[in-house]
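Internal QA ticket QA-208
Title: Verify multi-chain structure generation after dependency bump
Assignee: T.L.

Test input:
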Amino acid sequence: MAICVVARRLHFNAAHRLHNPARSAEWNQTTFGPCNNPNYHGHNYELDVLVEGEIDPETGYVLDVGLLKGVVEASVLSVLDHKNLNLDVPWFRDRIPSAENIAVFCWEQIAPRLPAGRLTLIRLWETPRNYVEYHGA
Amino acid sequence: MAICVVARRLHFNAAHRLHNPARSAEWNQTTFGPCNNPNYHGHNYELDVLVEGEIDPETGYVLDVGLLKGVVEASVLSVLDHKNLNLDVPWFRDRIPSAENIAVFCWEQIAPRLPAGRLTLIRLWETPRNYVEYHGA
Amino acid sequence: MAICVVARRLHFNAAHRLHNPARSAEWNQTTFGPCNNPNYHGHNYELDVLVEGEIDPETGYVLDVGLLKGVVEASVLSVLDHKNLNLDVPWFRDRIPSAENIAVFCWEQIAPRLPAGRLTLIRLWETPRNYVEYHGA
Amino acid sequence: MAICVVARRLHFNAAHRLHNPARSAEWNQTTFGPCNNPNYHGHNYELDVLVEGEIDPETGYVLDVGLLKGVVEASVLSVLDHKNLNLDVPWFRDRIPSAENIAVFCWEQIAPRLPAGRLTLIRLWETPRNYVEYHGA
Amino acid sequence: MAICVVARRLHFNAAHRLHNPARSAEWNQTTFGPCNNPNYHGHNYELDVLVEGEIDPETGYVLDVGLLKGVVEASVLSVLDHKNLNLDVPWFRDRIPSAENIAVFCWEQIAPRLPAGRLTLIRLWETPRNYVEYHGA
Amino acid sequence: MAICVVARRLHFNAAHRLHNPARSAEWNQTTFGPCNNPNYHGHNYELDVLVEGEIDPETGYVLDVGLLKGVVEASVLSVLDHKNLNLDVPWFRDRIPSAENIAVFCWEQIAPRLPAGRLTLIRLWETPRNYVEYHGA
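Actual output:
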């Protein structure tokens, strides 16, 4: 059976602040620079979700990307889109909402909810020039 | 003399909230939906600045795009980038920071500071699918 | 009052065939080449809809792009998306579904249904390298 | 010797229909939704072909991308571009022309015809938001 | 009759140097900075050619974009692509090969050779962030 | 500890010529075609640099992309941007400046200078349709 990867790109936008409350204001300013703005700043995020599995000969699909889109919308976009990651999303209460940690969040939300296939990659663009890739723990 | 337009694309990101304090919470929620989130959300903005003028035969330039970039960085990006438009930018104290109004702000900042040529268009992408164009008053 | 343009980019895909039934098979083959394939071929279309109007100081909007998106989905995407333009869309029964004519169709559908502002441009990409722009009759 | 991957992006467009003739009309409609339209729909496809090999010190090339382009045009684009995948391409007579299966087709066509290097990845975008990756059997 | 614009995007790459031989080395260095490198540097150029005309009801076309592509390839790409603009292109012997002047060159080459329609815009990207637009003399 | 990849996209442009001085003019012309132009041609290069490492719980970062950007600017862009690769860059005195070899150069410059993490991939676009990927020796 042929193994293939299907990918869906989705979009959300959010405000955030990079800040470690366990460290001094000076350390935070030096470490995070303008990303430490106490009033927050924000981004458009582009999210690629890649799922690997066998191609089902009945459908030609590894996984219907419409179903994949639905899983991501329900488990990630409904929680992050048009939100303040620091204030509105409990998962980030004790984690810094860096692109790296947002990718880990996406993995944890999506992986257990897939109706078929295995999650293999979360790729998250924070700006058109910065992105991260997470392959799971 | 040949008239030509030169354009520079620049990037900034910011948090904002669409909210009219003169109206009720209900009106704001109905009008702005998730963009009314009291904790803010945010965007990557792509900004195109178009300047028209004669091509100088000495340089082949309408305007050195390096100078144009410098004007936009000093007058717009230094004020908006990594900021909360509602809280950090005085110009938006009594204006709603919609894409339309941000474009007007960019025009007002850039037009009087150009070393050559005439500003003809501000094009501002708020997301990869939404943008505005402002040709001046 | 400041006049501004708001734009929304939307996506649809469709099959079509360029063929003029009033002309010979030979003329059609010479004129349209592989686009005359009797079994159809297809495209992803990217559609930009630009609407001009005054910025409402109450909202900062010319027109809520969510409303604009809704108008385009109801009047254009519901008719064209995942369709065969020649067979499924009555408007093309006696018109060739070229990008030019699809743009005219979009204008005719969208212009009378806008809740605010004036339609100023339909820009339609048929491929990443070919597009058309229609400013109305 | 340094091992490197060279990649070429190519474009084609086609009509297709997702339909399994061994199943009922109802099953097909439920499974494939608008992609089951009996009159077909279509897409622009972007195809990335990645080939791995040693860098030849005589040329600095793993493989001349002009040659790679020629192989893909002769073995894939000439068969799929401006075609109806269901009706015009024999390989799909008993396979559903999903993005997954088109990627497998591309691999089977290109892999045995490479003048140098080893095919390592076919990446195929069906829309700007959906793509598949196939690494071979 | 409906007036529409058809556009084709084309690609070329070239080396160039911004240098005015009538001025001092110091002036050139100050004016052009790294673009004055005596050994040249280079760019990928993306060129949009927009042509306006009536939609022909026989074809649905303003102008077959295949013909438009052919005109641009014969009159512009064959002269500029993979060339050194300063050394290989006579038109630039007494003009500085800035993006502005390259756009004027494209206009002069293409406008008189169009089989139908009127050239309305040359848009030329010199980098993904810098472009020029030329509407003719 | 979660392992993640952070990536930064950077831009430079340069002139180059593909030419092997140990071979005949005829061989070079046949092998490299228009890329053998003795007067050089040029490109905009887009460079993706991917670095893998553990997410630091103190910062949420694998590596501050601002630091990564600084390393690439100091070790690669300052050497290649707005340069003639054949004439201005000693590393290419005895190597052909193909995309493959430029990627190897980037790896050799960046890998030993990273303040944290491990370089895992250099991806280099020479044109919007041609790119290479180098994973190290």
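Spot checks passed. Helices of chain C lie at 25-32, 65-80, 85-88, 99-110.
Status: verified.
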